[in-house]
Amino acid sequence: MHNLLLVFLGGGVGSVCRYSIGHYLTSESSVPIGTLVVNILACLILGLLLGFQLKSNLQQNYSLLLMTGFCGGFSTFSTFSAESLKLFQNDQAGLALFYIGASIILGLLAVYVGYKVQTSL
């Protein structure tokens, strides 16, 4: 039960942060920049936490709260998918492919950078 509470609390805080950043970064642009920024930040944070976990043996409580809870609530694959579909439906296939590619490449790069930063300290 304690583990579920930690994931619940982290996920709630992550979701509120995701909403706030997405709301703040909403623009008239066709590119869903808020979701892109949130997902890349979530990947960077997760990479930092993975590196810290490897280096300092992050306790399970913190792993559940921050990695599973916060990062899970903060990132949003379902919104990314829906926004990608909307771009395709609006005959913006090039922009959709750019958004998908940028999200995947930048997400992987952010996890790697976070991990390398944390493990090199």
Short structural description:
With 121 residues, the protein is mainly alpha-helical.
Give an account of the 3D structure.
This protein is mostly helical and 121 residues long. It has one domain (2-120). The protein has 5 helices and no strands. It has helices spanning 2-24, 33-56, 60-74, 77-89, 93-120. The relative contact order is 0.20. The mean pLDDT is 94.
Order of helices and strands: HHHHH
Alpha-beta content class = mainly alpha
Number of helices: 5
- Total number of distinct structural domains: 1
Biggest sheet record: none
Strand tally: 0
How many angstroms does the end-to-end distance come to?
35 Å
- How large is the radius of gyration? 16 Å
Uncertain regions spanning at least 5 consecutive residues:
none
Which outline best applies? Answer: globular
Mean pLDDT, as a whole number?
94
Helix content: over 70%
% residues in beta strands = under 5%
